[in-house]
Amino acid sequence: MTSFVHIDYAVDHPGVVRAERVISNIQQAASRFDATRAGASMLLAAIVAALMVVANQVIDTWTEGHLLAAWIVMWALAFAAIALFAAPARRAATALRAGARRWASARKQAAEDQQLWNLAMTDARVMADISRAMSADALRDVKRYY
Question: What does R_g of the chain's alpha carbons equal in angstroms?
Fold first, then answer.
């Protein structure tokens, strides 16, 4: 009599499956990352830290009897600062980011213009092309007004 043995082996290693899940979760979290929000959070943390340093300096000058009240006031001040400065810090971070992008774009454009001008100074064909383009722009502006 013949009997068949069927042994079911696991096709996937549990550790590999777990590692793949971790990597996919990290990729999903990275895709949801908002740099503006992170920058605003860092700015807010810096503001609150500076405020806490000032409050700590004030507390250090007080006597021991007022220490508990001073700590309560300091932490109330910290939480109030977080609540008050959250939106302005986010707006400031957004504005700084946009300004940095515009500045980088303007620098890149200026470098490209300088490179083209340096090339035009050594190559008459490029200078002629620039001259024609400027004449065409001037002619187009004249036609627009008449």
Answer: 32
Q: Distances from the Cα of 30 to the Cαs of 24, 25, 93, in angstroms?
A: 10, 9, 20
Please name the residue that has the structure tokens 């990597």.
23
Full-prediction pTM beyond 0.85? no
Gap between the Cα atoms of 68 and 55, Å rounded: 13
CB atoms within 10 A of CB 89: 21
Nearest CA-CA partner of 39 in 107, 125, 101: 101
Angle at 72 between CA 71 and CA 77, to 5 degrees: 95
Q: What is the pLDDT of residues 28-68, one digit of tens each?
A: 877 776 666 777 777 778 888 887 788 777 777 665 666 66
- The tokens 């807010």 sit on which residue? 44
Token pair recorded at residue 46: 């810096």
